[in-house]
Fold:
Amino acid sequence: MRVATWDTRLTRSVNEPRAGSPPDETAQAKPSAQPKEEVSAEWELVRRAQQYDNDAIHTIYQTYYPKIYNYAFMQMGDVQAAEDLASDVMLKMIEKVQTYKFQGLPFGAWVFRIARNRLIDLHRRRKRRGEVDLSETIATAVANPQVLAERALERGQIQVALKHLTPEQRQVIVLKFIEGFDNRSVGKIMGRSEGAIKSLQHRALGALRRILHPDEV
Amino acid sequence: MFRRYGSVLDECLAALRTGESIEHIVARYPRHAPRLRSALTLAARVQSSPRVTPRAQAQEKSWRRVRERAHQLRMGSRRVAARRASYAAVLKPAGALVAALLLVSSFGGGLAYASQDAMPDSPLYRVKLATEDIHLWFVFDEKHEAEILLDQSNQRVDEIRSMVSQGKAIPENVLGALDNRNRRAVSILQDRPAETGLRARILTQAEEQEDLLVALWQQVSDDARDEYTEAVASLHNVRLGGGGGAALVEVQPGDLQNGIFSISGQVQALGDGTWSIGGVAVNIDDRTLGHGEIVAGLTARVIVALDATDRRQALSLIGGGFLGGPDTGAFVNGVVEEVTDEAIRVGGTWFNFSESTVQTYDMEPGELAQVTIVTTEDGIVAGEIKPAASTRTSAETKALTFEGTIEGDVSGATSEWLIGGFQFGITESTVIDASAGDVRDGARVQVEAVNDRGELQASRVSVLASETEAEVVTIIGSFDGFQGGEWVVSGLPVIPPENDDEPQVGALISVETERGDGGDLTASGFFEIEATDDEELIRTQGTISGITDSQWTLEFGDVSVLATAEIAGGEPGVGQRVLIWSEPGDDGDLVARYVRVLDHESIIPALFDTVLPAPTP
Structure:
C-alpha cells in the first residue's frame, strides 16, 4: 500500500483542478497558521477522503492518530484510555468526514474538536459512574509538585508536569505549544474566543512557571 | 502606547514559533523583559518536549476498524450514487418533454404577451389583468369560469409572495385583483350548492389566503390598507359561510382597520362574549372561526383584529387547549446553509416549506435568517423565514433580548409597556406569548426588541414561568463600549461590575443587572457569548422535550450541551423554554456555548406527545 507522508503530500497538487468546492476566498482572508499551499493540499486530501479514497484516509489516519493519542494521553495520563479515545475519534472522523466544510478552519482543528468533545463526554461518564479521574490521581499523589514537574520536564515527561494545571490550561498548552495551532483554531477546538485563548495561554504559562519556579514573582 | 502583557506575550509567542531567538524577541519589550524571558523559555521547553508515541500494535488494530468502516461507507455511498443515476435517466427525458411543451405553448407577441410575466409594480400589470378578463369573456360555462377565477386568484397570491420575497411592499392593485377574483368565484358558487368539489376548493383556498395575508400585515403598503382589509374580510366571510354560502354574521373591513395581531395564553371567560386570552380581553363570537372549541382554563392562540377604536375581535381560534401545534415560539437564527424549492437549511437542520410558510425575503446561502418553527401534522415546517439582524452590526438599530418584570396594568393598552424600568413600544406586529402566564402587572417577561435610536420596539413578548425578583434585569446584546464611565449594551446604559473585567467592544454579552432605587442598572456579572472575531453563532429558542446526557432535544432537533457550555437563568428541565447560542458540531449537531433557561418550571407538560422529529427534504 502506498503511504504518503504528511510532509511530502503537502508539496504536491497545489494547482490541480478539483472536482469539489475549493476553500473560498473569504475563508482564506481569515488568519490561519497554515500557508495557502498547505491549506490547498490539505483540502485536496480531505476531498479525496470524503469520497472514501483509501489512500487519503490512511494518510489522514497516520497523521492524526498519533496526534490525538498524544493529546489524549496528555489530558488523561493513561495509555489504554488514550488509545481508546484516539481510536474512537478516528472512527468518528471517517463517519463524519463528508460533513466537513472548509470554512477557514483547518481540518486538524476539526479533528481535534471531535477529540475534545469525546474527552468531555468521557470525563462526564466517569464522573457519573463515580470513577476517579486519572489526571487527578497523578496530580494529588505527589507531595511536592514543583520537584515532580521539574523532573518531568527534564525527562521530557511533559504530561506529568501538565497534570498540575487545570484541564483548560492543559488543553491550551498542548494545542498551542505542542500541536502548533494558532489562536483561532485553538478557540474553535475549545469553543472559546481568540481573546479568551490569549488570556488562557497567559494564565497557563504563568501557572506552569509558578509550579516550576515558585520563588519567581 | 500601553499594551497589555497578555497581548505582548501572544505576539512574542508567535515570533518564537517562527524561529526567532528569545533574546531577540525580548529586546523589543524591555519593560516586560524578565517576565517575557521566563514565559518564552518555558514555552520553548514545552515545544521541544518529545511527544508520547502510541503503541504500533494498538495503532494498527485501530486502523483495521477505520478501514472496515470506510469500506462500509464507500459501498453505501456507491449505492446512493447508483440510485441517483437511475433517477436521472428517467427524469431527463421527462424534463425535455416539459421544456418542449413550454416552448409549444409560448405563443403570440405584442403587449399582451409582454405583460404575461408582469408583476404588480410593473406598468404592464394592468394589461395583464385586462388580458385575463378578456380571456374570461369567451368562457361560457360558469363552473369553468369559477375554476379559472380561482386559478387567477392563486396567481395573485404567487405575485404577492414574489413581491414580499423581494422585500417590496404589497400594492393595492394586486390585493384588489385578488379580492375581485375571489368575490366573482363566490358569486357564481352561491347559486350552485351542488358544486361541492369547487366549494371545498374555495374554502381551502380562502383559508390559505387568509392565513397568508394575516401574516403579511406589516408588508402591506400604506396606500393599500383598504384593499387589504376588504380582501381579508371577504376571505374570512367565505370561510364563515362554508365556501360559497352566505354567512349569518360577517366581519366588516372596518373591524380590521388598526391591524391584526396574535396572542397565545390561558383562556378565561369574562362574560358577554368577552374572554381573557393571557390577560388580554378579546371578543370571541360567531364571527370567530373555531369559537366553539374555546374552553376556559386551557391555552389557545387567537388571531385578533383591531378596529379604529382598538376593540379586539377574534378572527380565529387556533388550539382550544392544544399548544405546540401552531406556535411554541421556537426559532432558529443563523446563516442560511442551503435553500431548495422545498426546504431551507439553517443551523444544520432542514426545515421544509409548507403552503402557509411566509417568506418575507428570498434568502440566499450565506445570509443571516430567522426561521420560526411550526409543528404540523406532517412534522416540523418553517412557519416564517425572514432576514435576521446581526448582533455585530454597527447600525443605529441594535437588537437585544431583555428579561424583566412588567410594571403597571397592560391588559388594556397596546402602545407602550413598562418593563424593567424601560418603555417598550408594543405594536400590532408584536407577538404576545402569554402561554406560561397572563400579561399583567408583576409578570416576568422576555422581550425580543430593537433599540432604534433610543426607542425600544418589542417584536415579541413572552411571559415566563419564573419567580425572579422584579429588580433583576438581564440584557443580552452587543457591548458598545463606555459612555461617561458606564457600559453601553445595545444602547442601554449599565453600571459596570465591581471587578475590573470588561467585555470586548462589539462582543455579544449577557449581563445580569440589578435595578437600584434611581432606576440605574448595575451589572453583577457578564458572560461573553460571542467575540467579534468569532464566526456568527446559531441562535435558537425552543422548549426542551428531552435531556439525555449532554444531548438536549428541542423542536428542531438536538443540541449538545457539554460541560463547557454556560448555563444561566436557572436549572434546565423538560418542558422549559431555553434560548441557546450554538456553533455547528462535528456531527451536524449544534454545540451550545451559552444557554439561557427562560422558565423555572415546565410550562406545557402535555406538549411533547405532539413534537415530531425534524424532517429532511
Summary: Chain A touches chain B through 63 residues (CB under 8 Å).
